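Q: I have 136 residues here and want to know how they pack in 3D. Can you give me a structure?
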Amino acid sequence: MSHYEFEWPIRVYYEDTDAGGIVYYANYLKFIERARTEWLRSLGIEQDTWLAHNIAFVVRKVELDLRQAAKFNAELRVTVKVTKIKKASLVFEQQVLAKDGSVHCQATVLAACIDNQAMKAVAIPEPIISRIQSGV
């Protein structure tokens, strides 16, 4: 498996914050989702192309550890790293980091590959697996 780690920049907008001016906890899920989408795109995997073939990835499980509040207008980096490839799922470790490298949020995400029409788990297609493993 590739040890390729992807990073995606995020800026905290006013809409991402609560009344106290800090990132509302549920928005970290949006940040890590966007980073996974951009990671796939960086590998040449376009989700809409696979959706046309009834292949989709759905989040089955998320574990979040919110360590430090991020505030309005902060510049953050979101990392994506695949830690396990199974027949029909991927496990990711993700972090939302400050410019100085301190961790705002740590996440473990289990994403399952499904037949979008049947809504059942299916094996991850070989072209996707090979791109993930090669990291290109």
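Q: Anything worth noting?
A: The two ends are 12 Å apart (CA to CA). The first strand starts at residue 5 and ends at 11.
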